[in-house]
Prior knowledge:
- The complex is a heterodimer.
- Chain A has helices at 48-58, 64-83, 123-129, 176-187, 204-213, 241-247, and strands at 14-16, 29-31, 41-43, 88-94, 100-106, 109-116, 134-142, 149-155, 163-168, 171-172, 195-202, 218-224, 227-228, 234-235.
- Chain A is of the alpha/beta class.
- In chain A, the strands form four sheets. In chain A, strands 3, 6, 7, 8, 9, 10, 11 and 12 form an eight-stranded mixed beta sheet that branches. A two-stranded antiparallel sheet of chain A has the order 1-2.
- Chain B has two domains: 31-238, Rossmann fold; 259-456, Rossmann fold.
- Chain B has helices at 10-19, 43-54, 73-80, 94-105, 146-151, 162-176, 181-200, 218-245, 266-276, 282-301, 341-347, 395-406, 423-432, 452-457, and strands spanning 31-37, 59-63, 110-116, 121-129, 134-138, 154-159, 209-212, 259-261, 306-312, 318-324, 328-334, 353-360, 367-373, 383-391, 414-422, 437-444.
- In chain B, the strands form four sheets. In chain B, strands 8-16-15-14-11-12-13 form a seven-stranded mixed beta sheet, sandwiched between helices. In chain B, strands 2-5-1-6-7 form a five-stranded parallel beta sheet, with helices on one face.
- Chain B is elongated.
- The interface between A and B is large, with 60 and 51 residues.
- Chain A: This is uracil phosphoribosyltransferase.
- Chain A: Its cofactor is Mg(2+).
- Chain A: Residues 45-246 form the Phosphoribosyltransferase domain.
- Chain A: Keywords: Allosteric enzyme, Glycosyltransferase, GTP-binding, Nucleotide-binding, Transferase.
Amino acid sequence: xxxxxVEKGKLAPTQCVGPLYRSESQKPTATVSTEVEFETVTILPxxxxxxxxxxxxxxVNTDRGDFIFYSNRIIRLLVEEGLNHLPTVEHTxxxxxxxxxxxxxxxxxxxxVSIMRAGEAMEQGLRDCCRSVRIGKILIQRDEETAQPKLFxxxxxxxxxxxxxxLLDPMFATGGSAIMAVEVLISRGVxxxxxxxxxxxxxxxxxxxxxxKFPKVRVVTAFVDQGLDEKNYIVPGLGDFGDRFYTM
Amino acid sequence: MxxxxxxxxxxxxxxxxxxxxxYAPPWADLSIIGIAGSSGSGxxxxxxxxxxxxxxxxxxxxxxxxxxxxxxxEASRKAFxxxxxxxxxxxxxxxxxxxxxxxxxxxKRAEIPVYSFEKHGRxxxxxxxxxxxxxxxxxIFALYxxxxxxxxxxxxxxxxxxxxxxxxxxxxxxRDRGRDIEGIIKQWFAFVKPNxxxxxxxxxxxxxxxxxxxxxNRVAMDMVVQFxxxxxxxxxxxxxxxxxxxxxxxxxxxxxxxxxVMAQTTQLRxxxxxxxxxxxNSEDFIFYFDRFATLLVEQALNNTPYISSSITTPQGCTYxxxxxxxxxxxxxxxxxxxxxxxxxxxxxxxxxxxxxLIQNNLRTGEPELxxxxxxxxIHKHEAVLLLDAQMSSxxxxxxxxxxxxDHGVKLDRIVLATYSAGRMxxxxxxxxxxxxxxxxxxxxxxxxxxxxxxxxxRC
Lengths: 248, 459
């Protein structure tokens, strides 16, 4: 009893997961992320611990407390990966033991923008990595009549055009709201290649639409799932992220 | 040990051992000093004075009194009437004593029975002795059993006047063992005195030195202390030489495939730069170190065992994922490892955590084990994360792994995670323990001083 309508009978990739030094027989098998061909898209390494975290938050029997804890851990890993795409310059410092250390220093100002409400659940993870980061908000909802996403509200840092933007939304299904959010950011003067869209689970369809429309926006995700069902929910997915995080 | 994986026969195991470098912790070659003498001759006072004078955690006293046999009901009734002969060698369980001494001599942990003089029996609990470098075995029959004598490095016989002995015994038994004076005197003439002549006194023949007047005898005290100090120095020299021998090949051989150095991404290098910068303020240092530590622990968990797990999502679909095979606990190598604890708690908030204090001797640089508390069921855990902030020579890491092995943790279940390490330390560690996995935040030069803990704890 797998998903109801999986895109054109495509099978989810299953493989042995674990450190290289273990032989195949010592590694358990699991379904891992579907690969995509867009170079702007980064999928987190499919390590056993990431798969285990995803298994926890996908499980319908996981309670809210655990759901919040385990999703926060994935979000932190996503933010850490996302930050790798920001610019740096060479920077040499002197260490406490007196020798020089050839390192890097971070360049450019950043801000977070969460797509309400599920995206706000990712703010904690962002703050864990970037303490006093500015966070803007965008409210996009599906218009009941047209079934199209509609912008209801936004509050963004005034100097957002000079910042790198980490756009936060955990579920990347059709990509409708993400596309609208990016359009809002571009209209405020943010260069396309200064936007990083960070999400937990994406659908191949959503990624394709988005990457073709915005070839310079980077996407960082933990997992590309099998596809969408008839209600445009990601399958196997994890249900409604906002509900499971905030109200269920 | 630890390398046997069931399916492969003994030949494979032997090969693995042959290839493996050997590490003997300083407690694997225990020196035992026996102090015998009549009851009340000042054996325990002398032992305590020696331990106090040396003031080292790895010099411990073991009293033969702990090895009194448990009494059957008949003997117990006799004992309560002061008619049981406690001063005969028959009363001592030498088999158990020899067994425990052999374990200790081999560097293993030994459970010592606890004997109650009030109840005339062994209590259910036991106390553990682990990792002493010198053990003082004290008791009227410390030099009695030939098997025990074989294990000893120095044999001392304490001598005192009989009336001194009797008066000391009265004071001690009334104060510490809940006896009455009449009973004590009855015991003295019925058992203690005849036994002394028959069994205790002849032990002086096997003694290396005979100490009259106990602790008051300064010359004898100094001799014994000097002897022990000499032994400790020898052990320290051997230990350091063994560590040096493990350096061979460190420069030419590649790192073990079980050593995982974290990918030096721009964020990691940027964080490292802030952490390494002497001008970084403490607030930033702690923030970035915690952030780094969190990633390090997440990475370490990739080396713990997982099993396949099928779950149902809220959409009603099946997902074939993974779950942790079983309990993962942690052991912090103090003080440095405690800097990784915030990171650990962010990843596994309720992680059972053992603690080991290993300090490098300031004078010799030799790692020394000072303190140890481990979860009781640690040998059953699927994985144990061993956390230390820095690994420079690998000496403390070797010792910490040895401690886990001595407590029944299988080598392939140990994951050492450290913020930084040098190739030399990694080489030494994986040469001796090729089955453990190691996660390193970044590779640094060999022999780097431990500066992270000073910065993190600000002292």
